[in-house]
Design brief:
- It is a single chain.
- The protein has 355 residues and is of the alpha+beta class.
- The chain contains ten helices and six strands; from the N terminus they run ααααααααααββββββ.
Length: 355
Amino acid sequence: MLSTGAAVAVPVVLTGLVFSMLLLLAPAKPAAADCGPAVSVVIDGSTKVDGYTQEQLKNAAAIMGAGKAQDLSVNGQVISVMVALGESGLRVLDSGDGAGPDSRGLFQQRDNGAWGSYADRMNPTTSATNFIKALKSVTGWELLEPTIAGNRVQRNADPYHYQKYLPEAVKLVQALSNSKFSLRGSDCAVPGQSGAGDDYPWKNSPTWLQAGANAASTSPLGMYYRECVDFALWRVNQQMGSTKAPFKFLNGSFRPDGQGLGSALTWKAGWDAKGWDSGSTPRVGAVVWYAPGAGGADPNFGHVAVVKEVKDNGTYVEEGYNGNPAPADHSYYTRTVTNTVPSAFLYLPTPEEKK
């Protein structure tokens, strides 16, 4: 049963701060994102990764090497390997498909003049170099959800086609690199990805029940500390590349119509007011919205959480705050939920998708 406290949100006036709409509406500055330096490739005949042949590993290494040569961030190296996984399974294919019978190589590049000669498209390093050049030409690509960034280059029909290949791409780049890395905690959050467990920065701050409904219990986001809404808004900021003050998305300036984002009850309306998408399919990083009473949520205010993992059996793992009964309320939780239980999934667009 979700706690009734999950719905509480502080009015903006209690924060004592004035938040400019210019902060919310200003275009992103992709150049400021720190997504980590490119990693060098370390591979020899003894290198093994479960589930992959030596041919596939050499092709992944060629992609990473092409990225290193172009000073591509490790995030870009991961995206490049992810796309090749989704297009060819890291194999240099000498055949296309119904949608692209002239597609060839690791990235299934078309014979349209944009990707060089047949020999170029069949060469792992050259084809990867051409893909990376196209990726780097996409404005703000480092702040795009990885699958969206790949889609901006490949222009395939399903922009979320590559999403399921991201964990394997991370695994491969880790295994073939000369140093361990993490995209978590950097200024370049990866949209579409959940955080590393309970990384909520105010987990030890006083709740409104302890400190009263005042500035002492109000987070920098304009919600009460350790409420479901504050955790969800933290995760929204984190995924959109805003991990420290001044945060991009705030209770008082989220909606373009000037209303506060408010309690869990109003989050779907807040998404609608911004023109952001929602739907019935869970995606990693999406906000889970429960209308009042849905799935055991508070009958008056509902509940919000975040999709942490999507499973293949019609369930997903959600994470959140204040979804436990007392005395463990106002703390972090995870639980497995059937996809049909929530009222909606609220998707996070990127600045480049919603210019």
